[in-house]
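Write out the 3D structure for:
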Amino acid sequence: MTYLMFFVFAMTTDAVGVIIPQVMADYQLSMFQASAFHYVPMVAIGLAGLLLGRLADKLGRKKLIIAGLLLYSLSCYAFIAGDSALFFILLMGLCGLAIGIFKTAALALIGDISRDSHGHTRTMNTVEGFFALGAIAGPALVTWMIAASIHWKQLYLLAGLLCTVLVIIAARMPYPPYQASAEQVSLRQSMRLLKDRYAMGFSLAIALYVSCEVAIFVWLPTLLADYSGRFALLALHAVTIFFILRALGRFLASLILRHFCWSSVMAVFTALIFLCFALSMLLGRDWALWLMPLSGLFMSMIYPTLNSKGISCFPRQQHGAVAGLILAFTALAAAVAPALMALLGDLAGDVVAGFYLATFFAALLAALMLYNWLAQPAKAQLEKMSS
C-alpha cells in the first residue's frame, strides 16, 4: 500500500516540468507565473508536513492516511470541473496539502513495520524506488497525452482513480499495533524539533540534496536546449535517463547497504554527485549531457537513506512529527532552489549561472557527508533507538 501511494503521487508531482510549457502556451503565462504549478504544491506539502505531521502520532497512522488519500483523490477529480490556470494552481495546492498529510503518516508507518534502523533504511529505499518509477511514468504519460491531443489534466483523473482504490485498501488493511504518546503531540513540542541537532542536521542535509536533484529535472532541459551536437536525441531525453538511473539505484540500494556502511556510501556517492556537477561546469554542455543524467545513479540512495536515519533517531511516537519536519525542509528546498537558480540565470543571461549555485550545494552536501562518515555524530543515537 505504501509503495503504491508513493508511486501515484510521484506521477503528478514530477510531471509538472512537462506540464508547465503547455500551460504557458494555453494561458499565456510568464515563466514566473507558470512556476506556481511547481512551488505552490511544494509549499503546501511543506506546510502540511510541518504543521500536521504530528497528527500521525496523535490520531494514528490509519486515520491520517485515509484522510490524506481522500483529499487527494477528490482534488484530482476536481481537475475535470474547470479550465483556468488559477483553478488548476489552487487544486495543485490542495493536492500538495493532501500529499503532506498522507506521506508523513506513511513515513511514520514504515517505522512501525521496521524491526530496526537497517531494515527501516532498506524499506525506505524501496519505497522511494516506487516513487522514482512514478516519476518516470507521470512525465511519460503527459508526453504521450500531448502527442495524442489529450489534455494533460486527464493524468489527474487517472491518479484520482488509483487513489480511490488506495483509500479502499487503506480502510480495509490491518495496521501494526501503535500506542500513541500524549506527551509528544502538541504543536509546541513538534516545533521543539527545530532545536534538536539530529532533526535539524538530517533536515538540512536533505535540503541540500533536494536542491541538487531539482536542479536536474527542472533546469537541465533548459541547459541543453541549445545543444546541437550528434547526441541531440540524448539531450532530448536527458531528464528521463536521469529518472531511470535514479529508480535503478534505489532498487539496488538494499543490496549495497547490506554490504557497506550507510555513512560511507553517502560520503562516496555525494562526492561523485559533486564531481558530476563540477566537471559539467568546467567542461561545458558536451560533458553535462552525460554527467548530469549520470548523477541520478549516485543520487538514488541519498534521500531515502538520510530520511530513514533522521526518523530512526527518534522513538516511534515521534516519527510522524519528525517525518513532517523533514518533509517541510524537502518541499522548501524544492520550491526555493529552482527559483534562486532562475534568478541567477536571469541576471547572468544564462541558466549556467544557476547551475554554479547547484554545484555549490553539491559541494556543501559532500562535505557534510564526509564529516558524517568520519565523526559518526548520529551513531550512538541510532543504536539507542534500535535497542
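The chain has a mean pLDDT of 86.
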